[in-house]
Design goal:
Elements: E1 11-12, H1 17-23, H2 36-40, H3 42-55, E2 59-61, H4 69-74, H5 79-100, E3 108-113, H6 116-120, H7 134-150, E4 155-161, H8 164-174, E5 181-185, E6 187-188, E7 191-192, H9 198-203, E8 211-217, H10 224-235, E9 239-242, E10 247-250, E11 255-258, H11 267-272, E12 275-278, H12 286-299
Parallel strand pairs: 1-12, 2-3, 3-4, 4-5, 5-8, 8-9, 9-12
Antiparallel strand pairs: 6-7, 10-11
Helix pairs in contact: 3-5, 3-12, 5-7, 7-8
């Protein structure tokens, strides 16, 4: 597929878009989370992308994680405006990339595809097992994938997927589009968040025409290495890893409870295990990505 580097070097991803927005003072309350700003304050999203690029990230992940036509319509937008806002998530990131491109060639935009559980906004993206059919998952994911593909991202970031059953639906949809994708599960220990063994979950991705990297995100950093090894073993692909800033999701308060920062001493081991895309997820801001980028540069 066109548009992807050959992974002959380790590329630094951005961090948690929500974290950068919160550091700006943005209000992310409500079911739409970061997607709410696509309609109300897109300039904040642009500033967040810019801050991560300036910190050393090579790839910006769009504000579409929690954006779906259904979710936006439920929030009061009509269907046409909902589709426009989903497209805008890519446009905003591309404009920032192009603005910086003269001095930072090779920057990329990844269109975020969050799980069905993100739309539910009840924490089930960290549990999976939604109790819905494959047909329902297909009905939910297909329109958003089509809209984001048409907006012209460099690749998809299919992320925080808790459940191998949802992965099966997504892989089939991805293989029908001409956009490369990385695919990352949320995990707990040596299982997906839904409890499936990692070797079985990553086997779902093996042989996909669209998936060009496989791994883990939005998970504890000490769970990354086993997940990366399972992903590489099952798929033979380069790995992607971007854990949280050491913490856990509190479903009662709907907030992250953070522990310490990303342990940079772990990163070299991830790279040796096959990681070629590395960044941070929830709780990781531009300052953290700057430190990560320095670590990757030193490792050469």
């Amino acid at each position: 597929m066109p548009g992807m580097p050959a992974f002959d070097e380790t590329l630094v991803l951005d961090g948690g878009l929500s974290t950068a927005l919160e550091q700006q003072g943005a209000d992310l309350g409500g079911a739409l989370w970061t997607a709410r700003l696509l309609g109300e304050e897109p300039e904040r999203i642009a500033a967040a992308h810019r801050s991560f690029f300036e910190a050393g990230a090579r790839i910006a992940t769009t504000a579409s994680y929690q954006a779906s036509v259904e979710g936006l319509v439920a929030a009061g937008y009509d269907a046409a405006e909902a589709r426009r806002l989903i497209t805008r998530s890519v446009t905003v990131a591309r404009e920032v990339r192009d603005e910086l491109g003269a001095t930072r060639p090779g920057l990329l935009v990844a269109a975020s595809i969050g799980p069905y559980g993100a739309f539910l906004a009840d924490g089930s993206e960290y549990r999976g097992r939604y109790g819905v059919s494959s047909a329902r998952l297909r009905e939910f994911h297909a329109p958003r994938l089509d809209l984001l593909a048409a907006a012209g991202p460099d690749l998809f970031a299919v992320e925080t997927i808790p459940d191998a059953d949802e992965a099966e639906v997504l892989v089939d949809l991805l293989d029908r589009l001409d956009v490369p994708a990385w695919f990352s599960y949320s995990v707990r220990g040596r299982a997906t968040s839904a409890g499936q063994p990692l070797d079985e979950a990553y086997a779902v991705l093996a042989g996909s025409r669209a998936v060009v990297a496989a791994g883990v995100n939005c998970s504890e950093q000490h769970d990354v290495l086993d997940a990366v090894r399972a992903a590489v073993s099952a798929t033979g692909l380069p790995a992607v890893a971007y854990p949280n800033r050491g913490g856990a999701w509190n479903s009662d308060t709907k907030t992250w409870e953070y522990a310490g920062p990303l342990d940079l001493d772990l990163v070299d081991g991830w790279v040796r295990a096959g990681v070629r895309l590395v960044g941070g997820c929830c709780g990781t801001g531009p300052a953290d990505i700057a430190q990560l980028a320095e670590q990757v540069a030193r490792a050469g």
